[in-house]
Amino acid sequence: MEAETITFLSNRKRITIPICEIVRISVYKKGTVVYTMSGNLVSSKTIGEFKRELSDEECFYQSSRTHILNLNFVDRYDDKTIYLKNGTEIPMPVRAKTATQSRIISWQFYNKSVNC
After folding, report:
1. pLDDT digits (tens, 9 = 90+) for 35-77
2. How many C-beta atoms surround the C-beta of residue 103 within 10 A?
3. Three-state SS at 29
4. In a domain, 33, yes or no
């Protein structure tokens, strides 16, 4: 089975990467930064465009206006921070804290070894 991919422009080059390699996506200026297991790519796509393209992938969750997380890379969280397995710390959203914590718990409980 071939891995699902996503395509976008980064530095005027068309980039195609496997969806499961995306760790997170965050807002950057008028576009986004796609953080992958092998590096970071700046894209002109908005976070909303990525959210629509990844809507069928249950492992992706938009925790705030500025972040989409791949729940497979979430290590743990506390009241103020989401800790990713690569050492990155994402601020816990204030307004959506309960929903975000519930989504992480649900994903970790039901999808321990599932990849996107």
Report:
1. 999 999 999 999 999 999 999 899 999 999 999 999 999 999 9
2. 17
3. coil
4. yes
Which helix (DSSP H) or strand (DSSP E) does residue 5 occupy? strand 5-10
Tell me: the pLDDT tens digits for 1-41? 456 999 999 989 999 999 999 999 999 999 999 999 999 99
pTM of the entire predicted model: 0.89
Closest CA to 89 of 103, 108, 76, 106: 76
Residue 115 lies in a domain: no
Q: The CATH number of the domain where 67 resides is what?
A: 2.40.50.1020
Structure-token pair, residue 36: 């992958």
**Is 116 domain-assigned?**
no
The structural domain count of the chain equals 1
How far apart are the C-alpha atoms of 41 and 57, rounded to whole Å?
20
d(CA 24, CA 28): 13
60, 68 in Cβ contact below 8 A?
yes
Hey, CA dihedral for 65, 84, 81, 29, is it positive or negative? Answer: negative
Distance CA 14, CA 53 (A): 16
